[in-house]
Amino acid sequence: MRQRSMIQAIVLTALLSITGVMQTNAQAFEYPESPEGFDNIAVKYQGSRPTISDFATAFLNYSKDMEPLGKEYTEFYGTINSEWQRYQQKKPLKNKASIIVDTKNGYMRYEIRRPEACDTTVMEMCFWNCADGKHKMVCANTVWRLDGDYGWAEYTGTHFFLYDNTTKKMRCLLPEDIGALYDGDGLTVFFLPRKGKNIKVSAAGGGDRWDEVLEWDGYQFHQKEKP
Q1: How many helices (H) and strands (E) does the chain have?
Q2: Which residues have C-beta within 8 Å of that of residue 69, sequence separation ≥ 6?
Q3: Is the dihedral of CA 203, 208, 209, 210 positive or negative?
Q4: What distance in Å separates the CA atoms of residue 51 and residue 33, rounded to the nearest whole number?
Q5: 182 or 102, which is more confident?
Q6: What is the dihedral angle through the alpha carbons of 223, 224, 225, 227, rounded to the nearest 10 degrees?
Q7: Phi-psi region of 200 (alpha: psi -120 to 50; beta: other; left: phi over 0)
Q8: What's the whole-number mean pLDDT along residues 191-209?
Q9: Are 155 and 142 a contacting pair, CB within 8 Å?
């Protein structure tokens, strides 16, 4: 009986130690300020918490009016926003587009293909619950594939937002401030997780292509080291 009590005491001490470290890390971690020129975005929702659809609606409504990012950018997201509204109204989509919403896994995907031009564009979104229990990390990512390879346009790339559970608003964060800027030799393309928590990365350089991973630690990302 005494030996059992000693084991229970050791286990309890270890658990308290781990909890203390987690609380210390949560208290010590602070997210950086947002870059200038980006306003806080209100996220409207019903129920106890926002879903990926609520984040998508907020992001698309905001992005279609971001004129400083260029006409090509606003036109692209304006088109997706129109399709998104049709999807929510259960109307047929135009332009041979498709939309997938996986509410359970917090993921949405808009895709439009133009086979005659060997052209595919994907805009996807997901979010992560932060370890402090006070925030969510929201990400919107757009990839353009042309003639079997990735291309660049004003609207391609990745946007990160920090959502505050209290204010019900999200603000922009720079990828490099949360460990999500991958330093490759060529065009870097992200693929958001529909399941799981890590971002897959493809980078091209000198005609080569390889896969990398950005691991989510509950607050930010870290480039996974290869074995």
Answers
A1: 3, 12
A2: 154
A3: negative
A4: 25
A5: 102
A6: -160
A7: beta
A8: 81
A9: yes
Q: What are the tens digits of pLDDT across the range 98-145? A: 999 999 999 999 999 886 767 899 999 999 999 999 999 999 999 998
Give the mean model confidence (pLDDT) for residues 165-178: 96
Q: Residue 156 in 3-state DSSP? A: coil
Asked whether 56 and 139 are in contact (CB, 8 A), the reply is: no
Band (pLDDT 50/70/90 cuts) for residue 11 is very low
Number of Cβ within a 10 Å radius of residue 180: 22
pTM of the model: 0.83
Distance CA(206)–CA(53), nearest Å, equals 39
**Which phi and psi angles does 17 have, rounded to 5°?**
-65, -45
Cβ proximity of 124 and 52 under 8 Å? no
Which amino acid makes up residue 111?
E
Residue 175 tokens, joined: 């990828």
The pLDDT score that the predictor gives to residue 149 is 83
Longest CA–CA separation in the chain, Å? 77
Give the model's pLDDT for residue 39: 85
